[in-house]
């Protein structure tokens, strides 16, 4: 039966996140191509988004944040973990810590070797270069003319610089650029997606310049509830917007860019998934695709926190209010100072043990005391050092709890379900404690607050601390995996296997996690998808 629709366009993009904004920009460059971009959230015109330090408020609020919760995690003491995800133009690039990191080159060669031709490092690097506008200028490994500003921090905290000294004191070399060496092991200040002290999200970089084009529609506050099919061909979407439930038809393709949580949810709601589970919810089956939602991966993270004596940190105490008032004045005048900080200013990469081919740990240093993603205030001044395991073997799943698209899906990362993961994180915790106990850190540090003196160095003690306190570092991927086997959801050109005119383009297609932050790789995936559609690959 033919699908009736209220409106038509050529390409429908679901999700205005890191990849979706890139895709909307590239496709709408062709004036004869109609593009409609749907976003469940709202506009990105907010001081909290524009001001880098506004991340503190974004993680605590729900206006621009899906504010998700995982299922209870058996290996983490039955805890449900908080997963913030962007619900706004720019997606998570509008609420994240803005760190620009691509991962290790061999991560992409692994993708290609796993049945995904065209995704090796030599193929993806040109897409990274295309979108980057590097503050230091163009080079063989950096782009200089792209739309995405990548900058040095304007006013790094002195404690962040002290952390880099402490890392060097412990044998981790200083890194000025994590992308300029075959081996990124070492620590330094992170570069950020900012321009002149302001957040430069995917929406700011790619969507804003394209919105003046007459062939691009941007629909905010419109929650796509399912993809519409005629047989096994995607022909449009159904969405819930200000005018109620409506439909739009796509003459060419439907492109799902809703992220590692909501892309598999939308496919499942649309009838693509494990047949018995869909039938149990009363969802008409389009394709028995048991891989949809599987292969979920995330970087699990644990922290060490210390008191510090200098009060240089961002803390809660009597000295902080005057500093914040002065910082607000400074930022209003020249977009500099404390409020231009991304919070996670410094960090780097390390190996949990000798002999590894590439680093398997990442560090994020914050010159502040952090509890529960900043949702709980901690009195006093201090520093927090995060460490995460970069290549977890555990695999989880996204599944439906209801056929109602407005209800969040079940998120089960299955953290530490594979026995290889806990020892890596344990070794990372030991390294983090050692870094904040080094002589170079000594003049700044006080007592260790967490794990604290009562938690010794024995395996059992550290494991118990990890199980009680580990959290996400916000890098879920893999739930619509790319590959050539029966459980792969998309092929190497991001086409959903078994149906026509439907692609997925976001972090959900990653076969395995990259060794670093995932925002820049998601934008690269948007570039790749555009090249496939425009015949440039």
Explain how this protein is built:
- With 537 residues, this protein is of the alpha/beta class.
- It folds into 2 domains: 1-58 and 81-150 and 194-298 and 390-409 and 474-537, FAD/NAD(P)-binding domain, CATH 3.50.50.60; 154-189 and 300-389 and 416-469, Cholesterol Oxidase, domain 2, CATH 3.30.410.40.
- The protein has helices at residues 18-28, 47-50, 55-60, 105-113, 121-131, 158-169, 202-210, 259-269, 275-280, 320-334, 421-435, 459-469, 519-534, and strands at 7-14, 35-39, 68-69, 82-83, 132-134, 148-150, 186-189, 194-195, 198-199, 216-220, 223-230, 233-241, 244-256, 272-273, 287-288, 294-296, 300-308, 346-350, 361-366, 382-389, 396-399, 410-412, 445-450, 471-472, 502-504.
- Helix 1 (18-28) links the parallel strand 1 and strand 2 (35-39).
- Helix 5 (121-131) packs across helix 13 (519-534).
- It is globular.
- It starts with 6 loop residues before the first strand and ends with a helix.
- The mean pLDDT is 96.
